[in-house]
Automatic annotation (TrEMBL):
Family: Belongs to the RLP family.
InterPro entries named among the record's database cross-references: Leu-rich_rpt (IPR001611), LRR_dom_sf (IPR032675), RLP_Defense_Trigger (IPR051502)
Keywords, comma-separated and alphabetical: Leucine-rich repeat, Receptor, Repeat
Name of the protein described by the UniProt record: Uncharacterized protein
Length: 245
C-alpha cells in the first residue's frame, strides 16, 4: 500500500493507534477532517520510512500533537517528507519540540527543523494559534527562525501561515528561498516587510493582507512578477513600485 487516506470518516473518533507495520510502504498519509480524540504522536508514524506527504487537519480541532522525534533514525526518515500540513488545528500554538516527524504545538518551532525536513516543499501552518515571530529561515516562532531552516531554502515552494498570531517582521533577513512561489501570511500581527524575500524572485502569489504593516513598500517588489498580490488593510506609505503600473 502506497496511499492511505482516512478523511471525513465519521467513525474515526477513538484515540489514534500505532500505524501497522504492513503500511511500511505508504508514501501519502492523510488523517484530515476527522474527529480523533486524545493525543497524536509522530512516533506513531516513525516507521514509515517512505512517507513523503502527511496531512493532519482535524475537523474537531481537538487533537493535540504529542511526542518527541529528535531520535536520529526519525530525523533521517523524515528527510523524504516534502509536504507537511497542520492546517485548521486550533490546538496548535507552536510546533512540536523536535518537530517534523511530535509534542503539542505550544511555543515554538524546533531549532533543528531544517535538518529534519531538508526537502520540504509544501508547509501549511494556517488557521492555528501560533504566536511570536516568524523570522528568516524555519526557526522558532519566538525569535529568529533557526539557521538550520536555510537548509530548506532550495526546496520550499509553498508556505501557508495565515490566521495565526505571528508578529514583528516577516522574514527580517534574506532567506534565499529560491523556489518559493506561494506565500500566504494574511491575518497575522506582522508589522513590517523587510528584505527576507529579496531573493525569492520566483514568487508570484503573496498575501500579507490584514496584518499591521507600516512603513514603505520595499523597492525589491519591482523585481517580482506577481500574479496575485494582496497587502490591503495596512498603513503602508511612500511611492508605489513602478512594476505595479
Amino acid at each position: 500500500m502506497r496511499t492511505l487516506s482516512i478523511e471525513e470518516f465519521a467513525g474515526a473518533r477513538s484515540e489514534t493507534k500505532q500505524i501497522h507495520s504492513r503500511f511500511i510502504s505508504i508514501e501519502y498519509l492523510s488523517l484530515s477532517d476527522n474527529e480523533f480524540e486524545g493525543f497524536f504522536s509522530f512516533e506513531l508514524i516513525a516507521n514509515l520510512s517512505k512517507l513523503n506527504s502527511f496531512n493532519l487537519s482535524p475537523r474537531s480541532s481537538l487533537l493535540p500533537v504529542n511526542g518527541n522525534l529528535l531520535a536520529a533514525k526519525v530525523s533521517v526518515e523524515c528527510h523524504r517528507i516534502t509536504e507537511l500540513q497542520f492546517g485548521n488545528n486550533s490546538k496548535l500554538s507552536s510546533a512540536p519540540e523536535g518537530f517534523a516527524c511530535n509534542q503539542s504545538l505550544q511555543q515554538q518551532l524546533p531549532k533543528n527543523i531544517g535538518k529534519v525536513l531538508p526537502n520540504l516543499e509544501h508547509f501549511n501552518l494556517s488557521n492555528n494559534i501560533f504566536q511570536a515571530n516568524f523570522p528568516s529561515s524555519k526557526k522558532n516562532f519566538s525569535g529568529s527562525l533557526p539557521k538550520e531552516f536555510h537548509i530548506v531554502r532550495y526546496s520550499l515552494g509553498i508556505l501557508r501561515l495565515s490566521y495565526n498570531q505571528f508578529h514583528v517582521q516577516i522574514f527580517p533577513k534574506a532567506t534565499n528561498f529560491w523556489k518559493l512561489y506561494v506565500l500566504i501570511a494574511n491575518n497575522n500581527l506582522f508589522n513590517e516587510i523587510m528584505d527576507g524575500l529579496l531573493h525569492s524572485e520566483s514568487i508570484y502569489v503573496l498575501d500579507l493582507s490584514n496584518n499591521y504593516l507600516q512603513g514603505v513598500i520595499p523597492s525589491w517588489f519591482d523585481k517580482i512578477h506577481f500574479t496575485y498580490l494582496s497587502i490591503s488593510n495596512k498603513l503602508l506609505e511612500g511611492t508605489l513600485p513602478s512594476a505595479f503600473f
